[in-house]
Amino acid sequence: MAVTHPLDPYLRVDRIPTMWCPGCGLGIALGAILRAIDRRIEEGLLKKENIAFVGGIGCTARMTLYPYFDSAHVIHGRAIPFAIAVKVVKPEMKMVIVGGDGDIAAIGGNHLLHALKRNADLLVIMVNNMTYGMTGGQLAPTTPRGLYTTTTPYGNPERELNVIKLAAALGANYVARSSITHPQLLERTIYKALAKRGLAFVEVLSTCPEIFGRHIGLRNPVDLYMELKKKVTVKTNPSIEESDYDWGRGFVIGEFVDRDEPGFLDTYREYISKSFGGGAV
Amino acid sequence: MKLSTPAATLIKTKSSKYAINVITERCKECGICVAVCPTKVLARGDSRNRRGYRYVVPAYPDKCIGCKMCEYSCPDFAIFVEAG
Amino acid sequence: MRYEYLTGNIAIAEASIVSGLKFYAGYPITPTSDIFEHLARELPKYGGHVIQFEDEIASINAVVGASWACAKAMTATSGPGFSLMLEALSLAVITETPLVVAYVMRTGPSTGVPTRSGQYDVLQSTYGFHGGLVIPVLAPSTPQEAYDLTVKAFNISEKLRTPVVLLSDAVVAHTYGKVAIRERSEVEIVDRSKPSTPLSEYRPYDPVDGLVPPMACFGEGYSVLVESLTHDERGYYAPRSDAQRKLMWRLYRKITESSGKLFDYSSLYLDDCDVALVSYGSTALSTQVAAKTLRERGVRACSLKLKTLFPIYEEGISKLLKNVEKVFVVENNVGLYYRELRGILKDRDVVSVPLIDLDVPLPQEVVGVVDKWL
């Protein structure tokens, strides 16, 4: 019998089931992203052939293996410069960067910083499972302080990196946090982010039951899912101070920044066309 | 590139208002759909798919309110709900 | 065609425009920044893009991305920057991404003497990246060669879907010379082959009937997969020995089996030669003079300047030197390329002439070393 899941037209169905562990939040995130894209395609805002996924390395970056779009699974931390170049050469493209907290905020941190500073026309989706899942549970920049990881066996002594604050401080047009425990809200967030010029940054809180869950005693996917759900508070227009990153007190999800400054492509093309009468680019 | 869909079994369970579809070979038995369903329609089944997972079954289809929380919360594109 | 008086660096920049460059990404570094600056002024006039990135890592990854957006793409750097680019070069090799890296060598290791020259990175330029394959390397010794080899580098990259290194050095970079500048219509320009299959049947790593797959790019409806994992013809991860073997041997063969076609050299007195002085890059300038000096003294010396350093055309080089008694490999390092040549000229007397000099080793230094062996 033919498989007819509503998202199958957007999936490389011959690669499903995914490589992710049972109960991994990444599939939920991917579903929300694809439904948001579907809505934008239906509306006529985006064309399927002009959407591309780019990911570096890690479980989240492997999200690029499944959508039936142009996709690039490149090297650790470097999805952003790859995507900026595609966008500069082909401005009609909608570049969707998918990466984990390590890929985007640790090894790729400098590229994120400069993409934010440029307000580069990208949708950056950072799925945050608070650990290095693919490599077996080492310290991530987002690992809550005090928690066990295989490389901080006596507890993580470091402060967590709040990437929401970073993105807001450096001038992204759109900064939001969402969670796989709220899939409709996540879909709406991505849907909105897809229409933004400039840089749209979405942090997606997610679950890694196999590694992170096991380390904190919540190995069952449902237990970890419910624990994250408990920690998440939905707010309308929260202030940036409310983005505080605290495993103990929980996380506020919502839109922290929504503005419409010119994106990198706008200013870049403006300066070039000023010099060449608009004929060059 | 033409995609060849692996043989997959779709089990369709109908209630008066909704059809609950489970693509059994995709299910990884994580249990999230069972947990998020607000009316407790779903339950872990007894049969296993080829990968050894006991895929979910709509045990009480008549309770379905069509909210699609299972569909939106399934990490594996294994369950979806249709009207009618 | 017109003549201009240019440095090696500006010759590279001008030739890249003629070759169809559409995207340059870079990070400033001595002694290459004038390539960047020249292109920043000129390339937008031709509809191309020049962007300064936050580091060399971003630059080379952007170049890979631009190439997948159908643009001919290049970056330029020197040793410290090239070291940072190696991981992405490996990505370009496995994803078969056409691009050109102009590598202007300076004195190393590390910061060394940034404004001065050397040939310390000749092996790194092709063997530096992980994965054990070969990147084509072309080495100019004059501004004219810098110009001509840049065109050639773009053509090779497009034809073989591979990164190509244009290995210059600080002396060539800033030496002025007369350069024949050609119009676009006067040079042979090669563009990558595009798929002829229907959108739904395209397989991005299927070489069809050769060794080089046709290349679709982003935004054309092919649902292209750029895959850094070991992959099959579809671009799907294939962690199996058979898939690894198939991919490795094809990537290896498409470069090495082209070694004859890529081979480029020039020589002096090679037809009548007992003592051959082999060199490349700026050192070749002195070696040519040294060969003349030795001939004036009655030694049947000749000079062979290699413009293609990798892949090594073993049969070709071996044949060129078949009647020679002694081969001297002259280079501005501890004797690196000598090791490569010694391997392919096993039955010949091959001597290393490693001369370390912040600029060009002088001809009399070359003669001095050769004299000791005669």
Q: Based on helices, strands and strand pairing, what is the structural class of chain C? A: alpha/beta
Q: Hey, which two chains have the biggest interface?
A: A-C, 38 and 44 residues
CATH topology tier name of the largest domain in chain C:
Rossmann fold
Shape of chain B: globular
**Tally of domains of chain C:** 2
Estimate percent helicity of chain B: 10-25%
Question: What percent of the residues of chain C sit in helical stretches (DSSP H or I)?
Answer: 25-40%
CATH class of chain B: Alpha Beta
Distance between the amino and carboxyl termini of chain B:
34 Å
CATH H-level superfamily of the largest domain in chain C:
Thiamin diphosphate (ThDP)-binding fold, Pyr/PP domains
N-to-C terminal Cα separation of chain C, in Å? 45 Å
CATH architecture of chain B: 2-Layer Sandwich
Named at the architecture level, the CATH assignment of the largest domain in chain C is 3-Layer(aba) Sandwich
Shape type of chain C: globular
Order of helices and strands of chain C: EHEHEHEHEHEHEHEEHHEEHEEHEHEH
What strand order characterises the main sheet of chain B? 1-2-5
Question: Helices and strands of chain B, in N-to-C order?
Answer: EEHEEHE
The number of helical elements of chain B comes to: 2
How much is the radius of gyration of chain B in Å? 12 Å
- Pick out the low-confidence regions of chain B: none
Features:
heterotrimer; A: 281 residues; alpha/beta; Rossmann fold; eight-stranded mixed β-sheet; 8 strands; 33% helix; B: mainly beta; Alpha-Beta Plaits; three-stranded antiparallel β-sheet; 2 helices; globular
Overview of the structural elements:
The complex is a heterotrimer of chains A (281), B (84) and C (374). Chain A is an alpha/beta fold and 281 residues long. Chain A contains nine helices and eight strands. The mean pLDDT of chain A is 96. Chain B has 84 residues and is mainly beta. Chain B has one domain (10-83): Alpha-Beta Plaits (2-Layer Sandwich). Helices cover 12% and strands 33% of the residues of chain B. In chain B, strand 3 (42-48) and strand 4 (54-58) form a beta hairpin. The radius of gyration of chain B is 12 Å and the shape is globular. The termini of chain B are far apart. The relative contact order of chain B is 0.30. In chain C, strand 11 (275-279), helix 10 (283-296) and strand 12 (301-306) form a beta-alpha-beta unit. The radius of gyration of chain C is 21 Å and the shape is globular. Chain C has 374 residues and is an alpha/beta fold. The mean pLDDT of chain C is 97. Chain A binds chain C through residues 15, 48-50, 52, 54, 57, 65, 68-75, 78, 80-86, 88-90, 92-93, 110-111, 113-114, 272, 275-276, 280-281, and chain C through 22-23, 25, 44-47, 49, 51, 53-55, 57-59, 61-66, 68-71, 73, 87-88, 90-91, 218-229, 236-237.
